[in-house]
UniProtKB/TrEMBL annotation, chain A:
Subunit of the oligosaccharyl transferase (OST) complex that catalyzes the initial transfer of a defined glycan (Glc(3)Man(9)GlcNAc(2) in eukaryotes) from the lipid carrier dolichol-pyrophosphate to an asparagine residue within an Asn-X-Ser/Thr consensus motif in nascent polypeptide chains, the first step in protein N-glycosylation. N-glycosylation occurs cotranslationally and the complex associates with the Sec61 complex at the channel-forming translocon complex that mediates protein translocation across the endoplasmic reticulum (ER). All subunits are required for a maximal enzyme activity. It comes from Gonapodya prolifera (strain JEL478). Belongs to the OST1 family. Keywords: Endoplasmic reticulum, Membrane, Signal, Transmembrane, Transmembrane helix. Transmembrane segments: none annotated. Pathway: Protein modification; protein glycosylation. It is found in: Endoplasmic reticulum membrane. This is Dolichyl-diphosphooligosaccharide--protein glycosyltransferase subunit 1. InterPro entries: Ribophorin_I (IPR007676). GO terms for cellular component: oligosaccharyltransferase complex. GO terms for biological process: protein N-linked glycosylation via asparagine.
From TrEMBL, chain B:
The lineage of its organism: Eukaryota, Fungi, Fungi incertae sedis, Chytridiomycota, Chytridiomycota incertae sedis. Residues 442-452 have a biased composition (Polar residues). This is Dolichyl-diphosphooligosaccharide--protein glycosyltransferase subunit STT3. It comes from Gonapodya prolifera (strain JEL478) (Monoblepharis prolifera). Residues 545-602 form the STT3/PglB/AglB core domain. Residues 18-417 form the Oligosaccharyl transferase STT3 N-terminal domain. It catalyses: a di-trans,poly-cis-dolichyl diphosphooligosaccharide + L-asparaginyl-[protein] = N(4)-(oligosaccharide-(1->4)-N-acetyl-beta-D-glucosaminyl-(1->4)-N-acetyl-beta-D-glucosaminyl)-L-asparaginyl-[protein] + a di-trans,poly-cis-dolichyl diphosphate + H(+). Residues 735-760 have a biased composition (Basic residues). GO terms for molecular function: dolichyl-diphosphooligosaccharide-protein glycotransferase activity; metal ion binding.
């Protein structure tokens, strides 16, 4: 009981804290998800658009830019700063790429906050909330500008064109600006894709820059009327369905490598007849087909180098990379010229020196800064995936984006000589247009000790390889110390050495004989001969020592062969000693005789006896030599 | 050497250190000399077969070993498909896969393509080591180093092992040489360990290349020769039995080989010698126990009887069909005309043609004249291993003469034998000169003694007399030894020069990319193949079926990722003949075939515009021949030749030729390029037919920049059930009328618009 009582107070505390967090989480959730809860939100009718000037720029078929200059009046009873912008739901989720609100122009321009708001189901519009810098009091006016960027609003008509023909596109959209508030006066200007307009509904009036409609008076909220403009295209609609960018930062090499892989679509009208190279070659003499895409030009940051351009089948050799002080360009020529409906997947990569993109922030962290993307102008990207691979050893990476991403990613990757891998951070964004090519930042910690990781790992690896090989070489792997094969090999080599030694002995003996013959027939100088003989005898003796030492190396081995070899070698040594002594005896006889001859005359009998003794010795030596020969042959 | 002395090494370690350094130098050189194509072009897989190997390796690395083993590739041989796991030698893919996996496990994220591209050069460095070991067994390590140097740069081997040549031979030649080294080693030592090692590497070889049959027959031949020479011993018995038993069992684990080692005639020699070994060993064993003479005679008779019985059983089993008789490929080795008559598919491959004489010199340089000297030296010494060299040299020389491709198996032995000869030569002239110098020193100190006996017949003496210079000066300058050694060195330098030249000029083209030189010497790349293949990949439906001649099957699968009807595997002659028939028949007939096979696109190669001679019109005769083999009544080769027996494509061409789908697709709209002038085919060097080519069942879908690859789309059957030809003529008539209408319609609309404006 005592123990229970002792823990009661902390228990209650814990429960209280848990309850507090739970409640906080609940409220927090509720606060962060207003759109889900209020699915049919009604816009309070607090404003009137006193003047709406809309300019719709569809000169580029892939991207439509809409600038709406507004003058609004607070017709409500209280001051408010929340203005709602309505976007058709189906347009919003598939076509809207960018929306911004600002006040003023040029240098005095001030950007306002635009937030995604509730869904108005009854009017099937998605609302965006523009917050004025300060609330607008009743009956006062405020003018500002909204800027929309749309993708894919122009569709091909006709669907198919001939190879040498330019396509046409039709824009179909709202004649009146869709707004939850009533509008007093509205004007619309359209900049069509070319001056060659096939049809337009309503017809409006032609101006030098395009078409103009209105002014319309007293337009009701959510009034919908269709505008349709069909005109010849002057640009080719291209679209990147996927762009994956991977930026690998390496402090070791001082380089950031950028890899961009594209899946590019030609969204123009398809060819009526399939592509004909013959026609292209014939037409090409006069003009290239207007819908054909043969070159792509990418602007790269200044200082970029090491450009490469590949696709799934390997290197594409028809590219041109040039680098200047202000920036580099990569001019690519796709493997095949592109026509409507065709797709082309490829990737290119380049290096940028880190000195241009990495700095140290205020808090001592490294900060990498670079554009979200740099692509082809007026080519929207459906899905942009950016991944930044940080150097090995860095940690606690944070990413700061110029817009809200659809998804943030992180992971770990391994590259050359990595042990713990590299941290990666990234994001995914759908529908990216030129207006969004802004810089983003990644900050991370990179301790200086991490610099030494790679050389350390390399040194350890090489050292381990050496130590390992040393260990392996010193280990004995055979089962049983002297396997038969080794022994046989040993016996063979030793046998060959015995042969060699025998040969050497023979040559030494031959030299001795030569010295003896010299003595006998030319100089008769006993002292000189004795000296030569002593020298040669010593050599023979040392060679015999060699013989015994050579055979010692097989003495440890088991097996008949080695024992036999050892025995034969010993016999051979004995035989050689015997043979040498015989030769010496015979020579001694001659020397003695020569001495006698010089001292006094010698009778024939003594000569004959000596001759016989020598002959006998020679015969005996012959026998010994034969024995040695057969012995050696048997080894 | 001073450095070595500083290291305090003994003479032995100095030598082994030198050997290691030289050998690794040779290995590195062998690797580097194969990189021309990577430097000149890029790191890319070459030619045709390597593309399949690469694709299979990708499959292996992506989906693992078991999926690869059980891979049924439905995108080739449509609609039959191909059981890849069971019809492939997986050695090279598994090797590359393992290397890739190891590198990735060590955090070296190398792309599998790089592993594949550089596999062959890396293995040729290993081949140099294996050749060193083999030649070392024959003579000594100096011969070994020479052999390693020779095989490192011999063009005969480089031709199949440049970077990017990711084919079975890339690792198989290393295995071939290494298995032979292990066999010699096992035989010398009579060791079961080395014999088993030999068996294991034999298994690796079987898994890598169909050429393993060469080993399977050469080793038994060696043993048989040893038996005939009376050299059969227990060493031989142990080595052969351990190799055969282990190697055969292991090799049967490869699905593609399966039970072949006991069921086909190619493998029967090895089995027979295995039996003979047992009989011989048994006889020897009994002889040692039973000295009685009569019994011995009886025993010998029994052994002979057993051998004869075995042979009879073999023949009986073969005729009754239990053992498959020799295959056609084997027959074509003995009768060079056989393939042309009975298996045109084999004959149609250029590397299966008999070798021309100059190519021996081209591929082996000065090794060819020196190599018989090495063989002669083997005869002089004639140890067991020398018998092997002689047998290998004789058989491989024959095969290399029969088929260009088999030059590859000859190269290692030529290198080894020439290394024996050259090293012997150097032994004689380098070693003796050392000895002489040692003797020369004292003679020069008491030069008077030497001068007292001048020899007039000595060239040195003569020169010294003529010029009045002391003898030893002359000797130091004019020395026969240095003359010989110098000329050998010069020849070797020239050989290295030749090898580099051949490698760079003849064997380093990927053949996927073509290079041409502009008038100013600049290189211009012709990348038509990849252009068209990549277009197919990117812009046709994923399940599209592409019909092409079988040469391009693997490339289409690898570079266009599309289903093909036939490919370089050529396992089904009838299917290939079907494609040949479709190509050589008139349009309506071909259309039936194409519709039956769900063909969506037809791909052909046409070189007529820029003069690329390896195009389909030049291969057309083989298509006709192969089709004729199956349908002798429908496709007749004679009809493609003019009455005078010429193969022509111009106006004189036969109607059969002009109406064939291949001809039409090749020359479709070709005249238009010449703007009304006579169109000239630059490969055949003749003008083409002057009337326009009309296509009705296919329409042009894509043609590459230089017209090398032309892709046609097969039209859908007419909705009204008309023949496509009549539908087209009808449409053309209608269109003519329609365009006329259109023009008038446009005019009227314009006028209407004008009136509207006016009204505004």
């Amino acid at each position: 009981m005592a123990t229970m009582r002792r823990f009661r107070l902390p228990h209650i505390l814990l429960i209280c804290i848990a309850a507090f967090f739970y409640a906080a989480a609940l409220f927090g959730n509720a606060a962060s998800k207003p759109a889900d809860r209020k699915s049919s939100f009604m816009v309070p009718s607090t404003f009137t658009n006193t003047k709406v000037e809309r300019i719709l720029d569809i000169s580029h078929p892939a991207i439509a830019r809409e600038t709406v200059t507004l003058d609004v009046e607070n017709t409500g009873k209280s001051a408010t700063g929340e203005y709602f912008v309505a976007v058709d739901v189906d347009l919003e989720c598939r076509k809207l790429a960018w929306l911004e609100a600002y006040e003023g122009k040029g240098a005095s321009r001030k950007d306002w906050i635009v937030e995604k708001g509730a869904l108005d189901a009854s009017n099937s519009v998605q609302l965006y909330k523009v917050t004025f810098p300060k609330p607008l009091s009743p009956f006062s006016h405020q003018s500002f500008t909204l800027y929309f960027v749309w993708v894919g609003l122009v569709s091909n008509l006709p669907k198919k064109v001939a190879q040498g023909e330019q396509g046409s596109g039709v824009y179909q959209g709202a004649l009146h600006w869709v707004s939850p508030y009533p509008t007093t006066e509205e004007k619309l200007g359209v900049r069509p894709s070319s001056s060659e307009i096939h049809s337009r509904t309503p017809s409006g009036s032609l101006t030098s820059t395009g078409l103009s409609y209105g002014p319309f008076r007293d337009v009701a909220p959510f009034s919908r009327e269709t505008l349709r403009v069909h005109a010849k295209l002057s640009h080719v609609p291209l679209r990147g369905s996927i762009l994956k960018r991977k930026i690998t930062i390496s402090h070791w090499t001082g380089i950031a490598n950028v890899l961009e892989s594209w899946e590019l679509w030609h969204d123009g009208a398809e060819l009526v007849q399939p592509f004909s190279r013959t026609d292209l070659l014939i037409q090409g003499r006069y003009a290239t087909p207007p819908t054909m895409i043969q070159h792509l030009r990418f602007d790269l940051p200044a200082g970029a180098f090491n450009g490469e351009y590949r696709d799934f089948d390997g290197n594409v050799s028809t590219s041109h990379f040039s680098s200047g002080r202000s920036g580099a360009t990569l001019e690519l020529r796709p493997r095949y010229p592109m026509f409507g409906g065709w797709k082309y997947q490829f990737w290119f990569a380049y290096d940028v020196p880190l000195s241009k993109s990495v700095g140290i922030g205020k808090d001592g962290r490294y900060v990498w800064k670079g554009p979200v993307m740099r692509g082809l102008q007026n080519v929207p990207v459906d899905r942009l995936e950016v991944e930044v691979v940080l150097p090995e050893g860095s940690n606690s990476a944070q990413i700061k984006l110029p817009f809200s991403a659809d998804e943030k990613t992180s992971g770990r990757e391994y590259s050359y000589f990595d042990t713990i891998g590299r941290e990666t951070v990234g994001f995914v964004k759908t529908r990216v247009v030129d207006e969004m090519w802004k810089d983003f930042e990644v900050s991370y910690n990179f301790p200086s000790t991490a610099y030494f990781r790679k050389p350390f790992v390399a040194i350890v690896a090489v050292l381990a390889a050496f130590l390992g090989s040393m260990a392996v070489l010193r280990l004995e792997f055979s089962i049983g110390k002297d396997s038969k094969g080794e022994a046989a090999e040993m016996v063979r080599t030793v046998g060959m050495r015995v042969h060699d030694i025998h040969g050497k002995l023979e040559s030494l003996l031959a030299k001795l004989n030569v010295a003896f013959e010299d003595f006998k027939h030319s100089h008769h100088d006993v002292a000189r001969f004795e000296a030569a003989r002593a020298d040669l005898t010593a050599q023979i003796q040392s060679t015999l020592v060699d013989l015994s030492s050579v055979t010692k190396s097989v003495s440890g081995l088991s097996g008949d062969d080695s024992a036999r070899l050892e025995k034969s070698a010993a016999q051979l040594a004995n035989l050689w000693i015997e043979r040498l002594s015989k030769v010496r005896q015979a020579q001694d006889e001659v020397v003695a005789l020569r001495k006698k001859v010089s001292a006094s005359s010698v009778d024939d009998k003594t000569r004959r006896q000596v001759g016989e003794r020598i002959k006998k010795l020679e015969v005996e030596e012959e026998v010994v030599a034969k024995k040695a020969e057969t012995l050696v042959a048997g080894v | 050497m001073a450095g070595l002395r500083l290291l305090n090494l003994t003479r032995e370690s100095q030598l082994s250190w030198l050997r290691v350094v030289i050998l690794s130098g040779i290995g590195i050189l062998a690797f580097l000399s194969r990189l021309f194509s990577v430097i000149r072009f890029e790191s890319i897989i070459h030619e045709f077969d390597p593309w399949f190997n690469y694709r299979a390796t990708q499959k292996l690395t992506e989906s693992g070993f078991y999926d690869f083993w059980n891979w049924f590739d439905s995108s080739s041989w449509y609609p039959l498909g191909r059981v890849v796991g069971g019809t492939v030698y997986p050695g090279i893919m598994v090797t590359a896969g393992i290397i890739h996996r190891i590198l990735n496990a060590l955090h070296f994220p190398v792309h599998i393509r790089e592993v594949c591209v550089f596999l062959a050069p890396a293995f040729s460095a290993l081949t140099a080591v294996a050749a060193y070991l083999l030649a070392g067994e024959m003579k000594d390590s100096s011969a070994g180093l020479l052999a390693a140097a020779f095989i490192g740069i011999a063009p005969g081997y480089i031709s199949r092992s440049v970077a990017g040549s990711y084919d079975n031979e890339a690792i198989a030649i290393f295995l071939l040489v290494f298995v032979f080294y292990l066999w010699i080693r096992a035989l010398k030592l009579g060791s079961a360990f080395w014999g088993s090692l030999c068996g294991l590497f034999y298994f690796y070889m079987v898994s890598a290349w169909g050429g393993y049959a060469f080993i399977t027959n050469l080793i038994p031949l060696h043993v048989l020769a040893l038996m005939a020479m009376g050299r059969f011993s227990s060493r031989c018995y142990v080595a052969y039995s351990s190799w055969y038993a282990l190697g055969t069992l292991a090799s049967m684990q490869i699905p593609f080989v399966g039970f072949q080692p006991v069921r086909t005639s190619e493998h029967m020699a090895a089995l027979g010698i295995f039996g003979l070994c047992q009989i011989m060993a048994f006889t020897q064993f009994l002889r040692s126990l039973l000295p009685a003479r009569t019994f011995q005679v009886l025993l010998q008779a029994a052994a002979l009887l057993a051998f004869g019985g075995g042979l009879a059983a073999l023949i009986l089993l073969t005729t009754s069909g239990f053992i498959a008789p020799w295959t056609g490929r084997f027959y074509s080795l003995w009768d060079t005309g056989y393939a042309k008559k009975y298996i045109p598919i084999i004959a149609s491959v250029s590397e299966h043609q008999p070798t021309a004489w100059p190519s021996f010199m081209f591929d082996l340089g000065f090794l060819i004249p020196i190599f018989p000297a090495g063989i002669f030296m083997c005869f002089q010494e004639l140890r067991d291993e020398h018998v092997f060299v002689i047998l290998y040299a004789v058989t491989a020389s024959y095969f290399a003469g029969v088929m260009v491709r088999l030059m590859l198996t000859l190269t290692p032995i030529v290198c080894v034998a020439s290394a024996l000869a050259v090293s012997k030569l150097l032994d004689v002239y380098l070693k003796d000169s050392n000895a002489n110098e040692a003797e020369g020193d004292p003679s020069s100190t008491n030069g008077d003694n030497a001068a007292t006996q001048p020899a007039e017949d000595d060239p040195v003496g003569l020169i010294s007399k003529m010029l009045g210079i002391p003898r030893h000066y002359v000797r130091s300058v004019v020395n026969t030894r240095w003359l010989v050694v110098g000329s050998i060195a010069w020849i070797m330098v020239m050989f290295a020069w030749h090898c580099t030249w051949v490698t760079s000029n003849a064997y380093s083209s990927p053949s996927v990319v073509l290079a041409s030189r502009g008038p100013d010497g600049s290189q211009h790349l012709i990348d038509d193949f990849r252009e068209a293949y990549y277009w197919l990949w990117q812009n046709t439906p994923e399940d599209a079926k592409v019909m092409s001649w079988w040469d391009y099957g693997y490339q289409i699968a690898g570079m266009a990722n599309r289903t093909t009807l036939v490919d370089n595997n050529t396992w089904n002659n009838t299917h290939i003949a079907t494609v040949g028939k479709a190509m050589s028949s008139p349009e309506d007939k071909s259309y039936d075939i194409m519709v039956k096979h769900d063909v969506d696109y037809v791909l052909i190669i046409f070189g007529g515009l820029i003069g690329y001679s390896g195009d389909d019109i030049n291969k057309f005769l083989w298509m006709i021949r192969i089709a004729e083999g199956i349908w002798p009544n429908e496709v007749i080769e004679r009809n493609f030749f003019t009455e005078r027996g010429e193969y022509r494509v111009d106006d004189e061409a036969t109607p059969t030729m002009k109406n064939s789908l291949m001809y039409k697709m090749s020359y479709y709209r070709f005249q238009d390029l010449y703007g009304g002038q006579q169109a000239i085919d630059r490969v055949r060097g003749t003008p083409i037919q002057s009337s326009k080519v009309k296509l009705t069942v296919v329409e042009e879908a894509f043609t590459s920049e230089n017209f090398i690859v032309r892709i046609y789309k097969v039209k859908k059957p007419d909705e009204l059930g008309r023949s496509l030809e009549s539908a087209q003529t009808f449409d053309e008539g209608k269109r003519r009328r329609k365009t006329a209408q259109n023009k008038s319609g446009k005019r009227s609309r314009k006028s209407r618009a004008g009136s509207k404006k006016q009204s505004e």
